[in-house]
Amino acid sequence: MEVNKNRLEAFSDAVLAIIMTIMVLDLKVPHDPTWQNYVDAYPIFASYALSFVFIGLYWSNHHHLFHEVSKVDNKILWLNMFTLFWESLIPFVTGSMGENHFSNITVAMYSIVMTFSTIAHICLVKALQNLHGTDSRFSRLFEGHFKGYATIFINTMATLLALAGFPRLAFILMCLIALAWFLPHHRISSTSARENS
């Protein structure tokens, strides 16, 4: 059964916007605002900032993905829901990591959620490639998942580092992942440039 892709996009945009709103509402207003209180709260702000960037990246990738999609079906609908499920857990693990000042298990849980968010996204892309056909323009644009697989590997390493007693190093690794995802997708960028010329 074919599904309206515009409704799927609108729903996904709304969910990601709600996730961002929940995160900012979780930031507690200091009752005794001193510079030291703000300095002491840096894990909360750092956790929020990293999650904000990740959600922005998820939204951007989702936008570029579905801009190229010509059709979706019920399987895509539920794989998209599966992806949103993992992303909807981000406020929970973000708050947990920040409130507990990067304790081992909270950073490990954060990286686990990020790992499964990436796995879900790759599954969604592969299902869309199968739906459009292996020789389609869509499949050619999104072939190869090196950055996604590298993200899964690094997030797994971050999980192990956090559990081994190096949670701040694990957090830095995840910050590097976020920076890497800012690099543009060259096939999409070049295709868009040709279309606009």
TrEMBL record:
One of its GO terms (molecular function) is potassium channel activity. The keyword Transmembrane applies. The keyword Transferase does not apply. Keywords: Ion channel, Ion transport, Membrane, Potassium, Potassium channel, Potassium transport, Transmembrane, Transmembrane helix, Transport. Coiled coil: none annotated. Pfam families: TMEM175 (PF06736). This is DUF1211 domain-containing protein. It comes from Leptospira hartskeerlii.
